[in-house]
Amino acid sequence: xxxxxxxxxxxxxxxxxxxxxxxxxxxxxxxxxxxxxxxxxxxxxxxxxxxxxxxxxxxxxxxxxxxxxxxxxxxxxxxxxxxxxxxxxxxxxxxxxxxxxxxxxxxxxxxxxxxxxxxxxxxxxxxxxxxxxxxxxxxxxxxxxxxxxxxxxxxxxxxxxxxxxxxxxxxxxxxxxxxxxxxxxxxxxxxxxxxxxxxxxxxxxxxxxxxxxxxxxxxxxxxxxxxxxxxxxxxxxxxxxxxxxxxxxxxxxxxxxxxxxxxxxxxxxxxxxxxxxxxxxxxxxxxxxxxxxxxxxxxxxxxxxxxxxxxxxxxxxxxxxxxxxxxxxxxxxxxxxxxxxxxxxxxxxxxxxxxxxxxxxxxxxxxxxxxxxxxxxxxxxxxxxxxxxxxxxxxxxxxxxxxxxxxxxxxxxxxxxxxxxxxxxxxxxxxxxxxxxxxxxxxxxxxxxxxxxxxxxxxxxxxxxxxxxxxxxxxxxxxxxxxxxxxxxxxxxxxxxxxxxxxxxxxxxxxxxxxxxxxxxxxxxxxxxxxxxxxxxxxxxxxxxxxxxxxxxxxxxxxxxxxxxxxxxxxxxxxxxxxxxxxxxxxxxxxxxxxxxxxxxxxxxxxxxxxxxxxxxxxxxxxxxxxxxxxxxxxxxxxxxxxxxxxxxxxxxxxxxxxxxxxxxxxxxxxxxxxxxxxxxxxxxxxxxxxxxxxxxxxxxxxxxxxxxxxxxxxxxxxxxxxxxxxxxxxxxxxxxxxxxxxxxxxxxxxxxxxxxxxxxxxxxxxxxxxxxxxxxxxxx
Length: 781
Fold this sequence. Notes:
781 residues
């Protein structure tokens, strides 16, 4: 063996020794931190499975003739571009993002491309947008998003206008409509986007905050002079004013001129665009044929913010309603979330329509054709029939309304309404008790809850009973006044039928004290947004009128719910509060009784109304079964479109029964026509024949996973949620697994970190031996 071969052998042996040593050290490290190792391996595998599953689900999305796009817009959902991930923990960021499921975040480019694809796709019949907060955040705003500027909104508006125009070409005038729903607008930029839609639906107590563009700039030079700070400023040319607030006591004339020109131009564009988009509706409402749509929009800005009824009368919105009204408008159309459509349509284009791509989807179509009904709805339909049986316990659903009433949040109006809707659609529940301990809060949120109380009672026939705790005043009473029966304790603070509003005014004295000057610029003669001016004149009258309208609406709701005349309501209104005893004397509550008494009363009413409840539930689930069967028939090629399937299909769900019992009675109408049931006596007793089911359910993690897994396929009925999932199935599931994954990751890492820090041999030992890392897993206990 020559010298060169010996050197190569030695080098090879040395490398092998090094590799062996490295493997041994790696093995020791992996064993030492075996939890982290196993977790990382499991996470990697789970990420791969999720990615594969998402790709498979995307490939299986069926776009059929008769589809509408659903788009949930919230603050941050429309962005210019995703933020790049940092190098540190980038693997964990990617993993969490993968585990979180499909995001509803869209870049402006993706949104524009998707709208363009949908505009050219004749199967897409329209677009539905729901404005609201992100389900996975604590944001409290009905806004299109932080950082979304006027130019980006104009791009989106243009794409939306083109979508509408192309749909009218494909489907005929008046078709291919786009719907924008919100309970209320929080800023005029969001309304500017909404004005590009053919239909704008706002809650009756909502607002359109059109006030014109304005700018406010504070100047601190005098303050800086007082504290002895001198600013050395270098600026070139008279319009460079970015340092002006620190070098000037008031706005320089050139800056004022520049800013006014800029604001006026932008404002004129907004007025013109809104007038163009909503012109036909605005002019159709106008009584003066000589006034242009632009003049009406400008006048609205001068009088803004505009309450929803006035916005409707002026044509700024097309209808007043709630989320369930939008669902009824959609009807039998199949809803697909816009992100899911974007992926599916793009894949379809690349595979079938681009040069070089062909795909045979006959196998997937055959799979769809195998099942014409969804097992979940059939099981619910069968369960609802058990409500007719005697000698069965009656289940009462309990929904809580606690603390200050807000539109968003874990106990906000959205969460309360979702719980009401879940209880209403639960085929085992016969009545709902809303437990209230709240002094009131936001008017819009209170109105939302009150509307859903009415909706579940009318739509599902289930009585809603109110049980008051320590207090049920103002908005809390507003939300519950239409309940079938109201219970209170003698010491419950009740009533306060009235409205109050408060706004700060910063006086000149304060500004002089702190040495600050304020300059305000307005493109419209409307200073209602200013905190530096006290309302006066027409502005004060509009402000007072808004309060008067809300107050009248409150009294109307009380009159309707309690069976009073307007005069009788006025006698117990005017903002007065009562004890429970006084409230009973004045007819504001029905009975002095405990929480359990309210539950028993609800169970009694639920039993007495069981035929109507079962009939309405059967109709609800039957309609969903037929609707989904039609959608799948279209996907299987049996029908050309949903419209054709609705005209020609014979899908029916018929429930019949027979009995030789002479006491049996037959249902003569509704979905249960022909079914029989037996009358009998029932006395509700919480300990004998009444069950309680709290919504949202506090189930174990395993039960929650099973429940969510059952809904993974989605029934596409578009009516499973008070808010987001009414605009497309699957969103709630994705959100759930995203939350679960993030909590699981955080919990596992916390446990491992704590173990490392507490280990005496660890080189990373913490100086604080009492350090703890806990995950927020309250939802899974």
